[in-house]
Amino acid sequence: MVINMATNLNSASCTTAIARLNDDARLGCDHRARILFTRNCLETFCAEAGAHPALIQAELLRAFRTCDFATDSPERDFASILYRDRKVWMKIDYYDLDCLFGSDDPANAAMTTRVITILLPEDW
What we know:
Elements: H1 11-26, E1 34-37, H2 39-49, H3 53-65, E2 78-83, E3 86-95, E4 113-119
Parallel strand pairs: 1-4
Antiparallel strand pairs: 2-3, 3-4
């Protein structure tokens, strides 16, 4: 990840800004953010619960909107939860507006698209 200091933020302020923007994306307040679920994640829970994929997606999104973050994730870009007795991960990555390349400045919402991926550890 390349941080463009054109935003004039020091490291701590940059981390805080990225964490706030990640929270906005995770909470559904960032209209540009994209949310992806791995096929394996959805198929695993649908098969186990006999539930529709939309229900599984809604339950996982709700769980990640209220999850706690480890101290080693100050940007709040990674979380791990237990859902239906299975570990599930959420990862946020930063792309340019066209999602072709990584963002030059993840602390700048005007030039960054956040992509939230929800996956099982074995999908990594």
